[in-house]
Amino acid sequence: MKRPMLDRGRLAIGDMRLRITLRELMTTAGIVGASSAAAFLVKPMNGEASEALIFVLGIMLCGAFEGLTAALIAAIAGFLIYNFYFAEPVLAFRLARGSDIAPLLVFNLCAVISGVLAGRLKDSVQAANRKNEALSRLLEMSQALQSAVRLGDVAAALRATPSARSGVSLHLFSIKNGRLQPLMDGAAQPEWQAMAERSLQSVDPIRCEDGLTAHRLDGSDGPLGVFVFKADAVTRLEPPFMAALANLFTLAMERATLSEMIEDVRALAKTEELKTALLSSVSHDFRTPLTAISASASSLIDYREQLDRDVSLRLLQGIVDDCERLNRYTANLLEMSRLEAGALPTNLQKIDVIEMLVAVMQRVRPRLNERRMTRLFTGTDIVVLADASLFELVLVNVLDNAILYSERKSCIHIEVEDDGGYCRITIADEGRGIPDEDLERVFDRFHRVARTEPSPLGSGLGLAIAKAFVGALGGSIAAMTPGIGLAGTRIVICLPLVKEDRPQ
Predict the structure, then answer these.
(1) Is residue 115 within 8 Å of 74, Cβ to Cβ?
(2) Into how many domains does the chain fold?
(3) 97 in a domain, yes or no?
(4) Which residues form the Histidine kinase domain (predicted)?
(5) CA 20 to 30 Å from 442, out of 225, 254, 378, 465?
(6) Mapped to the 3 state alphabet, what secondary structure does 1-34 carry?
(7) Average pLDDT over the chain, rounded to an integer
(8) 206-209 and 383-387: which strand pairing?
(9) Residue 501 forms part of a structural domain
(10) Is residue 366 located within the same domain as residue 299?
(11) Quick one: 274 and 365 in the same domain?
């Protein structure tokens, strides 16, 4: 199919097809008429030389104001009028003497040359202005598309730059799952969709039908979509401009497509990493207590007659502790999956932090194993808005970590204070501490600090749940070293305070 010319309005530089609009023709006729009238007025005083100069000036004005085509028309009209009305003999297209041919030819040559030069200068200025305008529109569109990282961003950038597409209705279509889909509102009109489909199947990347022009957007690995546009009655579209605009869309859509593919690959890799970590965590954290429960239960069954009361109670207590451990781990998994899915705490209520901490300390006390727990609560009526069960789970997780990674007969210290509109909870221990490079990573899911010395392994979920919960409530949590003295770790939780209404 022959590629259509998009510029239907005016001659381009180097294009020999001369065109003129009705307005330009009327202006040219007016200037030629005014020149003729002026020549009639000066003829009695100055003769034919002044008349010829007036016509030359009129032809130059036509070229300067209306371009090359107007200058050529003015030159022909001026030649005919001057020869018929002013050159002797008047009212006849013939010469009185043979010697009159030289001045007449010089007049016409000067008129044509001056008109052509003025017209080409005018056309060159107009072409330069159009090119500058096109470059400005392309630059505006390019700047808007630079931040597009998804296909939807490309359409949003197009909607955000109305001046770059003034006088033009255009729509973008992308190829998804082998089908064309509109990226912009209103792009699914039947004629636009059909035009895009035909362009996608066409050999020529540019197709023009019924006033619509479609430009297929070919990327490095094949078609990415179709760009369909339609200009209004007064807008002139240069083919290089539309081709450059299509190239901008192609680059932006290809970059957005690659960006989405990279995100998908990263998400898949992260999912696989989490799956591996979850399986590793489950295999360890379930197997260890289940093995202990199985061993204790088997001993109670097989040797119940030989075991005294204290040994039996110790084995039963071990079963209870391991069941509690499994229960905490299962609760952590469930809450982590809920928080990761974007479910924010919904059962929010006013909670007295000191009362909650006292209850949590009582709950973990059986697991202290000769460790000491001290506290320093400053202030009263320290109230936060939180989910009670999740808040308790967070505090239990942090205290369990302090117990797990500290030695027997060491100290665990808990502080609560009102810190300028925030409740500040500090839990410090005298344990092994956390390396500086892991102080932020300990809040990642399934992250465990690598240690050279033998140490217990947690699930890697407790602090991750704490961070998600605290962040959802507009607070913060941080791990610091040292904890107590020069050893251990300090976990600091800050939550917004709720001011209680006091009776007057």
Answers:
(1) yes
(2) 4
(3) yes
(4) 281-499
(5) 378
(6) CCCCCCCCCCCCCCCCCCCCCHHHHHHHHHHHHH
(7) 76
(8) unpaired
(9) no
(10) no
(11) no
Whether 5 maps to a domain, the answer reads no
| 209 CB-near residues (< 8 Å, 6+ apart) | 195, 198
| Radius of gyration, CA atoms only, the chain | 43
φ/ψ region of 212 (left if φ > 0, alpha if ψ in -120 to 50, else beta) reads beta
For residues 339 and 215, give the distance between their C-alpha atoms in angstroms, rounded to a whole number: 46
Within this chain, do residues 373 and 289 fall inside the same structural domain, yes or no? no
Let me know whether 90 and 61 are in one domain.
yes
426 near 501, Cβ under 8 Å? no
User: What range defines the domain where residue 216 resides?
Assistant: 156-241
Which contacts qualify for 269-274: CB closer than 8 Å, 24 or more apart? 274/445, 274/446
Residues 184 and 127 in one domain: no
Go through the chain and tell me how many residues it has. 504
pLDDT digits (tens, 9 = 90+) for 266-310: 877 766 765 665 565 566 567 767 888 888 888 888 887 888 888
Give the tens place of pLDDT for each residue, 77-115. 877 787 777 766 767 666 555 555 666 666 667 766 776
Full-prediction pTM beyond 0.85?
A: no
Q: Is residue 59 part of a domain?
A: yes
Q: CA-based angle 439:442:445, to the nearest 5? A: 155
Q: 477 CB contacts (<8 Å, ≥6 apart)? A: 443, 463, 466, 467, 470, 471, 491, 492, 493, 494
The Cα-based distances of 217 to 147, 205, 260 in angstroms read 19, 8, 18
Q: Which residue has the tokens 């579209």?
A: 237
Q: Answer yes or no: are the C-beta atoms of 42 and 50 closer than 8 Å.
A: yes
Beta-strand relationship, 383-387 and 372-377: unpaired
Tokens 């009695």 found at: 44
Concatenating the DSSP letter of every residue in 317-335 gives HHHHHHHHHHHHHHHHHHH
The secondary structure of 429-455, three-state, reads: ECCCCCCHHHCCHHHCCCCCCCCCCCC
